[in-house]
Structures are given as C-alpha cells and as structure tokens.
Amino acid sequence: MRPATAAAEHSGLRLDRFLALAFPDLSRSRLKSLLEQDAVRRASETIRDPNTRVKPGEIYEVCVPEPAAAIPEAQAIPLKVVYEDNDLIVIDKPAGLVVHPAAGNPDGTLVNALIAHCGVSLSGVGGVARPGIVHRLDKDTSGLLVAAKNDRAMASLARQFAARTIERAYNAAAWGAPRAGEGVIEGDIGRNPFDRKRMAIVRAQGKPARTRYRMLERYGSEARPFASLIECRLETGRTHQIRVHLAHLGHPLIGDSIYGRARRPPRAKNEAEEKAYTAAVEFPRQALHAWLLGFQHSSLHKHMRFESPWPEDFAMLIGALRGLNARA
After folding, report:
1. β pairing state of 167-175 and 303-307
2. Are 185 and 249 contacting, i.e. CB atoms less than 8 angstroms apart?
3. CA dihedral of 49, 23, 84, 302, whole degrees rounded to 10
4. How crowded is residue 249: how many other Cβ atoms within 10 Å of its Cβ?
5. Which of 87, 138, 140, 256 is flagged as catalytic?
6. Dihedral angle sign, alpha carbons of residues 157, 162, 166, 171
C-alpha cells in the first residue's frame, strides 16, 4: 500500500494526474488499470473515477500488487546483449527470432529469452514480471531493440516513442535504386483491404506513417541499377513501415516475399555479376537491419546511442552486390 498526500498546489487536479505526479515510477496506463481494479482508496472509500478532483490534505492510498508470474515462460535462448542495467536492456536481435509470443509462436521468442536472462532484475511492467516491449522488429529483421524492466523505464521510453525523439536508423538492400538520392516517403498505413495479412498504404482507416530515406550505394549500371543500399530513418513506427514504404516507392526489399516479387536478373557477363545476382535472388529474408538506436535514459538522464554491425548474411549480400561496380 503506497500513500500520497495532496498539497495545496494539487488542488483541483484530476486524480489520475495527481497520482501520476505522486508516483512517477508508475505509467499512466498502469495507474488507470489500478483504478479500474479498485486499488485506489481515499480514507475507507474506493475511488474508481480518474476525473475525481483532488483537495489539499486528502490522502490517497494505492495498492500496488507484487508482479504476478509471467504468462510467457522463461526459456534459455542465447542473446546478444549490447547494454543492460536495472532499468532496461538493449539486444542485438538476430534474424529469425520472433519478438513477442503470439498465435503461431507461443514460445521461443525474445520475451521468453528476456524473462530467463533478466531473472530477479525484472521487477515487472504493468504488475507482471515480464519485459516491456515498446517497439518491435519483424521476425526476419535483424538489429537493435530496447526493452524496459520496470514501469518507470517503460513509461519513459513510451513517451519518447510517442514524441518521436527515439533515434532509429535501418540499412536496407532494395531492388533498383530511387531516382532521388534522398527524400521522404509518406502515406497512411493500414491493413490491405484485399489481404488482411498484409499492410498497405491506404486512403481510409490507416495511421500516418513517415520514413526518411537516403541512398548510400548504387549497384549496377547508372541507367538501370540492379540494386541499392538505402538508409531509412523512422519518424513513426507502423507495422512493416519500411517494407511497405519502399515497395510503394517501387523499390521493395531484396528477399521480401510479402511486399516484393520474384526478380529475373540480367545475363551475367562475368563471375562477379553471377555472384551478385545469385546472392540477391536467393537471399532468404527481407534485407533489413536496424543498425542504430538512440534514446534518453530515464534514470541516468543522459542520451544513450548504440550501433550494430551488419550480420554475416547481410554483409555477404552487400559484398557480392559491390562486385557489380568493380572495374576490370
């Protein structure tokens, strides 16, 4: 049971606002849940209405239960930990690892691995002893991801994502090359009305999405490049955003079986071209790597910035594609 006494400066505040000030380690969503669960009292009265106006001298008590056992089980799955402290953990996720348990992937996920790895340092998010996943990477996308260990870190990261102050940059290998060396792709993203398993740029019932891109390298002829290396920076975080936006631009990711299409390479003139064309056509996943992640640490009060080198398969693909630009 955690008490909080309203002072003169709190007079007239909504209860949920007062509780957020009194307990900064608890997120707004967590406090809302506690109100709905009859866990907030004033004297002997249970208060459920977040709109209740606070008066000076009133004492509110919040019953914060111990973290319940996590529904996902702990599983000893190897992790590449880039950084870890009592508040959060940064992981360099390999391609092929699902982030969160869901239909079709009930276990063997990053969440299962984090529960096992963090152990007692995982104080719980939302009253449950599980990591706080504030952003995700697709199963076959590799790279950096941050997870919160407690409500305070979760709330801080969530605010930063909402305010779009999180720094996220991806390297993408795409078919062809954009005419403009850099630009912005905008378009609301929602479920494809003809295929609910896919996302698409839609005119109605979508969410605003914005991606900045910059072409880093072009492979093949100037007139008709075979592929390119593109850096993408997210200003929003929609499902499959980079994959959908680059496909909309006419340059889907190499290896993307959902938003791309089978490509027939030109006739190879030498061994380097044969190697490059084969590497691209046979690449087994979407060629996307989250190489940069930056955010403000809620407890250390400093900016944290992490970089991830390309995984072996991505590096080999780019190496092969660079062979198209080699001069005899």
Report:
1. unpaired
2. yes
3. 120
4. 19
5. 138
6. positive
138 is catalytic: yes
> d(Cα 61, Cα 74) in Å, to the nearest integer?
33
Mean pLDDT of successive 10-residue stretches along the chain, which has 328 residues: 92 93 86 90 91 93 75 89 96 95 81 90 74 91 95 92 93 95 94 87 91 96 93 94 96 95 85 94 97 96 97 98 80
121-165, pLDDT tens digit by residue? Answer: 887 776 666 788 888 899 999 999 999 999 899 999 999 998 999
What SS3 state is found at 277? helix
Q: Which residues pair with 307 in a beta bridge?
A: 292
The three-state (H, E, C) secondary structure of 28-82, written as one string: HHHHHHHHHCCCEEECCEECCCCCCECCCCCEEEECCCCCECCCCCCCCCCCCEE
DSSP H helices in 135-219 = 151-163
Closest by CA to 54, choosing from 16, 2, 3, is 16
Contact 174, 253 (CB under 8 A): yes
pLDDT score for 328: 39
Mark residue 96 as left, alpha or beta (left: phi above 0; alpha: psi -120 to 50; beta: remaining): left
How many other C-beta atoms lie within 10 A of the C-beta of residue 91? 25
- Site of tokens 């079709």: 104
> What is the amino acid identity at position 12?
G
Q: Is 249 helix (H, G, I), strand (E, B) or coil?
A: helix
Hunting for tokens 């087994």 — which residue is that? Answer: 284
- Give the DSSP letter string of 112-128: HHHHHHHGGG--BBTTB
* Residue 50 and residue 15 in contact, taking contact as beta carbons nearer than 8 Å: yes
SS3 content of the chain, % helix, strand, coil (to 5): 25, 30, 45
